[in-house]
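Ran guanine nucleotide release factor structure dump, as promised
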Amino acid sequence: MGSMKFVERMLFGGAIFAELPESFFDTRVSSKIREIPDHQEVYLDRDGFSSITFDILERVTETATDEAALLYHLFDIVEATDRVCITNPSLVDLPHCPVSAYRMVASTRPGLNKDGGKDFTILILLLIRLEMQDTDVLISVNLPYRGKQFTADVVDLEISIGSGVVNDSLELGLDMLDTIRRSFQIRDWGLFGDG
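structure tokens r here:
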């Protein structure tokens, strides 16, 4: 796979900046695919089905740990009927933002689509915990696989990483999230109500 070009994007009216792949477009400006709520920004890949979503959410406080908060947000994203394979959340740093952040990779198990093929999605999540603002920022890189025949072990992340079946896309998704993480900056803390 060739190297991906990234460009700095303003998010939420310029309150947040991050580098995103150049081929991803802002659905608020360039598309009428679906209505996007004010607390969310969605970027779609012009060259495929992948997407990057930024959510500003109320901070999860009913869980005992930050890792459990990440799981809470994951299960808010996936369908209740989806079977999910999850890697252990890991603490990561944000060079431009002195707060806690956690990364996790998850995949849904293959399910039949309307054409009889099997679909699944790999989700690469970054949870940024803004305790003083009572806010969680959730960034998800979504890598859907459509219409192909897969067995359950193909999307078992412990088995498939390194197998080549999903490895190229997964590596690309991890690189995307890593670039977003390294470039993520909050320039207007007033976005969260406490400037």
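Residues 6-188 form a domain with the Protein Transport Mog1p; Chain A fold (CATH 3.40.1000.10).
lmk if u need the other ones
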